[in-house]
Amino acid sequence: MNTWYKTFIYALTAALLISCRGETKSVAADGDRSVQYFPNMYESAGYETYQEGTVFENNMEAQKPVEGTVSRGWMPYDYENSNEGYASAKANLQNPLPYTEENLENGSVMYGIYCAICHGKKGDGKGHLVETEKILGVPSYADRPITQGSIYHVMYYGINSMGSYASQTSEEERWQIAHHVDALRRDLQGVERQAFVKSGEVAEPIAQPQDTTMVSSDKDAEMEEAPMQPQEIEEQETETQTDGQ
Ligand code: HEC
Questions:
Q1: Which of 95, 119, 188 is the best mutation target for the ligand 1 pocket, counting ligand atoms within 8 Å of the beta carbon and taking the most?
Q2: pLDDT on residue 138
Protein backbone atom coordinates (compact mmCIF):
# COMPACT_ATOMS: atom_id res chain seq x y z
CA MET A 1 0.00 0.00 0.00
CA ASN A 2 2.75 2.36 1.02
CA THR A 3 4.72 1.81 -2.23
CA TRP A 4 1.59 2.33 -4.32
CA TYR A 5 0.94 5.56 -2.52
CA LYS A 6 4.51 6.79 -3.12
CA THR A 7 4.38 5.88 -6.80
CA PHE A 8 1.10 7.74 -7.10
CA ILE A 9 2.62 10.91 -5.57
CA TYR A 10 5.66 10.73 -7.90
CA ALA A 11 3.45 10.30 -10.92
CA LEU A 12 1.25 13.21 -9.91
CA THR A 13 4.26 15.52 -9.36
CA ALA A 14 5.73 14.56 -12.73
CA ALA A 15 2.38 15.20 -14.43
CA LEU A 16 2.08 18.61 -12.77
CA LEU A 17 5.61 19.64 -13.81
CA ILE A 18 5.05 18.61 -17.41
CA SER A 19 1.74 20.44 -17.56
CA CYS A 20 3.42 23.66 -16.40
CA ARG A 21 5.78 23.62 -19.38
CA GLY A 22 3.21 25.15 -21.67
CA GLU A 23 3.13 25.44 -25.42
CA THR A 24 6.72 26.08 -26.52
CA LYS A 25 5.57 27.07 -30.00
CA SER A 26 3.73 30.17 -28.79
CA VAL A 27 6.80 31.64 -27.00
CA ALA A 28 8.26 34.36 -29.22
CA ALA A 29 11.76 33.86 -30.60
CA ASP A 30 13.28 36.75 -28.61
CA GLY A 31 12.30 35.09 -25.34
CA ASP A 32 9.28 37.23 -24.53
CA ARG A 33 6.66 35.56 -22.43
CA SER A 34 3.65 34.46 -24.34
CA VAL A 35 1.36 35.59 -21.57
CA GLN A 36 1.77 38.97 -19.92
CA TYR A 37 0.23 39.52 -16.57
CA PHE A 38 -0.35 43.26 -16.07
CA PRO A 39 0.70 44.16 -19.66
CA ASN A 40 1.02 47.88 -18.95
CA MET A 41 4.03 47.10 -16.82
CA TYR A 42 5.74 45.88 -20.00
CA GLU A 43 4.32 48.36 -22.44
CA SER A 44 3.96 51.76 -20.83
CA ALA A 45 1.45 54.24 -22.15
CA GLY A 46 3.97 57.12 -22.00
CA TYR A 47 6.29 57.92 -24.89
CA GLU A 48 9.99 57.17 -24.64
CA THR A 49 12.25 60.14 -25.42
CA TYR A 50 13.86 58.75 -28.56
CA GLN A 51 11.07 56.45 -29.64
CA GLU A 52 9.69 56.59 -33.16
CA GLY A 53 6.41 58.39 -33.35
CA THR A 54 3.99 59.74 -35.86
CA VAL A 55 3.07 62.99 -34.12
CA PHE A 56 5.94 65.14 -35.39
CA GLU A 57 7.30 65.53 -38.90
CA ASN A 58 10.64 63.88 -38.25
CA ASN A 59 8.90 60.82 -36.75
CA MET A 60 10.75 61.13 -33.47
CA GLU A 61 9.42 61.93 -30.06
CA ALA A 62 12.37 64.06 -28.94
CA GLN A 63 12.26 67.55 -30.43
CA LYS A 64 14.79 70.37 -30.44
CA PRO A 65 13.98 73.47 -28.36
CA VAL A 66 12.27 76.27 -30.26
CA GLU A 67 14.76 78.45 -32.11
CA GLY A 68 16.02 81.32 -29.96
CA THR A 69 15.41 79.43 -26.71
CA VAL A 70 17.72 80.56 -23.93
CA SER A 71 18.30 78.13 -21.10
CA ARG A 72 17.88 79.36 -17.54
CA GLY A 73 20.86 81.06 -15.98
CA TRP A 74 22.65 81.46 -19.31
CA MET A 75 22.96 84.81 -21.04
CA PRO A 76 23.80 84.96 -24.73
CA TYR A 77 27.05 86.78 -25.51
CA ASP A 78 26.42 89.37 -28.21
CA TYR A 79 29.92 89.83 -29.59
CA GLU A 80 31.11 87.68 -32.47
CA ASN A 81 34.31 85.71 -32.55
CA SER A 82 35.91 87.93 -35.18
CA ASN A 83 38.21 90.95 -35.38
CA GLU A 84 35.17 93.24 -35.47
CA GLY A 85 33.65 91.46 -32.46
CA TYR A 86 36.92 91.85 -30.58
CA ALA A 87 37.19 95.55 -31.43
CA SER A 88 33.60 96.17 -30.49
CA ALA A 89 33.89 94.32 -27.15
CA LYS A 90 37.09 96.21 -26.40
CA ALA A 91 35.40 99.56 -27.00
CA ASN A 92 31.92 98.96 -25.60
CA LEU A 93 31.77 96.07 -23.18
CA GLN A 94 31.83 97.14 -19.53
CA ASN A 95 32.38 95.03 -16.44
CA PRO A 96 28.94 94.73 -14.81
CA LEU A 97 30.40 93.71 -11.43
CA PRO A 98 31.36 96.41 -8.96
CA TYR A 99 35.03 96.59 -8.02
CA THR A 100 34.62 95.18 -4.53
CA GLU A 101 37.26 93.43 -2.43
CA GLU A 102 35.22 90.25 -2.65
CA ASN A 103 35.01 90.27 -6.45
CA LEU A 104 38.70 91.03 -6.80
CA GLU A 105 39.63 88.31 -4.33
CA ASN A 106 37.62 85.68 -6.14
CA GLY A 107 39.01 86.87 -9.48
CA SER A 108 42.51 86.47 -8.11
CA VAL A 109 41.80 82.89 -6.99
CA MET A 110 40.32 81.99 -10.40
CA TYR A 111 43.25 83.66 -12.16
CA GLY A 112 45.62 81.52 -10.09
CA ILE A 113 43.77 78.40 -11.23
CA TYR A 114 43.34 79.12 -14.93
CA CYS A 115 45.68 81.84 -16.14
CA ALA A 116 48.82 82.12 -14.00
CA ILE A 117 50.34 78.95 -15.47
CA CYS A 118 51.02 80.96 -18.67
CA HIS A 119 50.62 84.62 -17.76
CA GLY A 120 52.43 84.47 -14.42
CA LYS A 121 51.13 85.51 -11.01
CA LYS A 122 51.86 89.16 -11.77
CA GLY A 123 50.59 89.07 -15.35
CA ASP A 124 54.07 89.74 -16.73
CA GLY A 125 53.87 86.79 -19.14
CA LYS A 126 56.34 84.69 -17.15
CA GLY A 127 54.23 81.76 -16.02
CA HIS A 128 55.53 78.25 -15.42
CA LEU A 129 54.83 77.07 -18.97
CA VAL A 130 56.72 80.05 -20.38
CA GLU A 131 59.71 79.58 -18.05
CA THR A 132 59.92 75.93 -19.05
CA GLU A 133 59.51 76.93 -22.71
CA LYS A 134 56.39 74.85 -23.22
CA ILE A 135 54.58 77.82 -24.75
CA LEU A 136 55.84 80.96 -26.43
CA GLY A 137 54.39 84.35 -27.20
CA VAL A 138 52.59 85.00 -23.91
CA PRO A 139 52.51 88.77 -23.56
CA SER A 140 52.82 90.90 -20.45
CA TYR A 141 49.51 92.65 -19.77
CA ALA A 142 51.46 95.90 -19.72
CA ASP A 143 52.31 95.52 -23.40
CA ARG A 144 48.77 95.07 -24.72
CA PRO A 145 46.17 97.82 -24.97
CA ILE A 146 43.61 95.71 -23.13
CA THR A 147 40.31 96.81 -21.60
CA GLN A 148 37.94 94.90 -19.34
CA GLY A 149 35.82 94.22 -22.42
CA SER A 150 38.71 92.77 -24.43
CA ILE A 151 39.87 90.68 -21.47
CA TYR A 152 36.39 89.20 -21.16
CA HIS A 153 36.24 88.64 -24.92
CA VAL A 154 39.50 86.66 -25.10
CA MET A 155 38.46 84.56 -22.10
CA TYR A 156 35.19 83.80 -23.86
CA TYR A 157 36.59 82.85 -27.27
CA GLY A 158 40.33 82.47 -26.75
CA ILE A 159 42.83 84.24 -28.98
CA ASN A 160 45.41 82.56 -31.27
CA SER A 161 47.26 79.98 -29.18
CA MET A 162 45.29 80.80 -26.03
CA GLY A 163 42.17 78.67 -25.65
CA SER A 164 38.67 79.64 -24.55
CA TYR A 165 37.73 79.59 -20.87
CA ALA A 166 33.99 79.79 -21.47
CA SER A 167 33.32 76.20 -20.41
CA GLN A 168 35.41 76.20 -17.25
CA THR A 169 34.26 79.53 -15.84
CA SER A 170 30.89 81.13 -15.21
CA GLU A 171 30.03 84.57 -16.53
CA GLU A 172 30.44 86.03 -13.05
CA GLU A 173 33.84 84.39 -12.58
CA ARG A 174 35.08 85.74 -15.92
CA TRP A 175 34.15 89.26 -14.90
CA GLN A 176 35.86 88.78 -11.55
CA ILE A 177 38.98 87.59 -13.38
CA ALA A 178 38.74 90.62 -15.68
CA HIS A 179 38.86 92.88 -12.60
CA HIS A 180 41.96 91.07 -11.40
CA VAL A 181 43.72 91.18 -14.79
CA ASP A 182 42.97 94.88 -15.07
CA ALA A 183 44.43 95.41 -11.59
CA LEU A 184 47.58 93.47 -12.61
CA ARG A 185 47.92 95.59 -15.75
CA ARG A 186 47.72 98.75 -13.65
CA ASP A 187 50.39 97.43 -11.27
CA LEU A 188 52.70 96.58 -14.17
CA GLN A 189 52.19 99.97 -15.80
CA GLY A 190 52.49 101.85 -12.52
CA VAL A 191 48.94 103.16 -12.81
CA GLU A 192 46.92 103.45 -9.61
CA ARG A 193 44.32 100.72 -9.05
CA GLN A 194 40.63 101.54 -8.94
CA ALA A 195 39.23 102.44 -5.54
CA PHE A 196 37.16 99.69 -3.96
CA VAL A 197 33.42 100.00 -3.88
CA LYS A 198 32.01 98.70 -0.61
CA SER A 199 29.36 96.03 -1.09
CA GLY A 200 26.75 98.15 0.72
CA GLU A 201 27.28 101.16 -1.57
CA VAL A 202 26.16 99.50 -4.76
CA ALA A 203 22.48 99.19 -5.25
CA GLU A 204 22.75 98.62 -9.00
CA PRO A 205 26.00 97.06 -10.21
CA ILE A 206 25.52 97.98 -13.89
CA ALA A 207 27.30 101.28 -14.63
CA GLN A 208 24.90 104.16 -14.92
CA PRO A 209 25.46 105.95 -18.25
CA GLN A 210 24.47 109.41 -16.93
CA ASP A 211 27.48 109.35 -14.58
CA THR A 212 30.02 109.09 -17.36
CA THR A 213 29.91 112.73 -18.48
CA MET A 214 30.53 114.09 -15.00
CA VAL A 215 34.03 115.09 -14.04
CA SER A 216 35.06 113.67 -10.74
CA SER A 217 34.86 116.92 -8.79
CA ASP A 218 31.22 117.39 -9.86
CA LYS A 219 30.50 113.90 -8.78
CA ASP A 220 32.13 114.40 -5.38
CA ALA A 221 30.17 117.59 -4.89
CA GLU A 222 26.93 115.90 -5.72
CA MET A 223 27.64 113.04 -3.41
CA GLU A 224 28.30 115.47 -0.59
CA GLU A 225 25.01 117.20 -1.24
CA ALA A 226 22.90 114.10 -1.04
CA PRO A 227 24.51 111.40 1.00
CA MET A 228 22.34 108.31 0.94
CA GLN A 229 21.00 106.99 4.20
CA PRO A 230 21.66 103.30 4.83
CA GLN A 231 17.93 102.78 5.04
CA GLU A 232 17.45 104.20 1.52
CA ILE A 233 20.14 101.91 0.16
CA GLU A 234 18.43 98.92 1.66
CA GLU A 235 15.14 99.91 0.08
CA GLN A 236 16.79 100.26 -3.31
CA GLU A 237 18.41 96.88 -2.98
CA THR A 238 15.18 95.11 -2.21
CA GLU A 239 13.54 96.83 -5.20
CA THR A 240 16.16 95.58 -7.60
CA GLN A 241 16.17 92.02 -6.32
CA THR A 242 13.26 90.73 -8.30
CA ASP A 243 14.68 87.55 -9.77
CA GLY A 244 15.88 86.03 -6.54
CA GLN A 245 19.54 85.84 -7.59
C1 HEC B 1 48.15 78.10 -22.34
C2 HEC B 1 48.64 79.40 -21.96
C3 HEC B 1 47.63 80.47 -21.61
C4 HEC B 1 46.69 80.44 -20.60
C5 HEC B 1 46.45 79.33 -19.60
C6 HEC B 1 46.00 81.71 -20.66
N7 HEC B 1 46.50 82.47 -21.68
FE8 HEC B 1 46.00 84.37 -22.10
N9 HEC B 1 47.30 84.41 -23.65
C10 HEC B 1 48.11 83.36 -24.01
C11 HEC B 1 48.84 83.72 -25.23
C12 HEC B 1 49.83 82.85 -25.96
C13 HEC B 1 48.40 85.01 -25.57
C14 HEC B 1 48.81 85.83 -26.78
C15 HEC B 1 47.80 85.54 -27.87
C16 HEC B 1 48.08 86.38 -29.10
O17 HEC B 1 47.60 87.51 -29.14
O18 HEC B 1 48.76 85.87 -29.97
C19 HEC B 1 47.46 85.42 -24.55
C20 HEC B 1 46.84 86.67 -24.50
C21 HEC B 1 46.02 87.10 -23.50
C22 HEC B 1 45.50 88.44 -23.38
C23 HEC B 1 45.78 89.60 -24.31
C24 HEC B 1 44.84 89.51 -25.46
C25 HEC B 1 44.80 90.78 -26.28
O26 HEC B 1 43.75 91.36 -26.37
O27 HEC B 1 45.85 91.15 -26.83
C28 HEC B 1 44.72 88.47 -22.27
C29 HEC B 1 43.95 89.64 -21.71
C30 HEC B 1 44.74 87.14 -21.70
N31 HEC B 1 45.55 86.34 -22.46
C32 HEC B 1 44.05 86.77 -20.57
C33 HEC B 1 44.04 85.48 -20.07
C34 HEC B 1 43.21 85.07 -18.97
C35 HEC B 1 42.30 85.99 -18.19
C36 HEC B 1 43.46 83.75 -18.76
C37 HEC B 1 42.80 82.82 -17.74
C38 HEC B 1 41.38 82.72 -17.78
C39 HEC B 1 44.45 83.33 -19.73
N40 HEC B 1 44.74 84.40 -20.52
C41 HEC B 1 44.97 82.06 -19.81
C42 HEC B 1 48.26 82.17 -23.35
C43 HEC B 1 47.50 81.75 -22.28
A1: 119
A2: 96
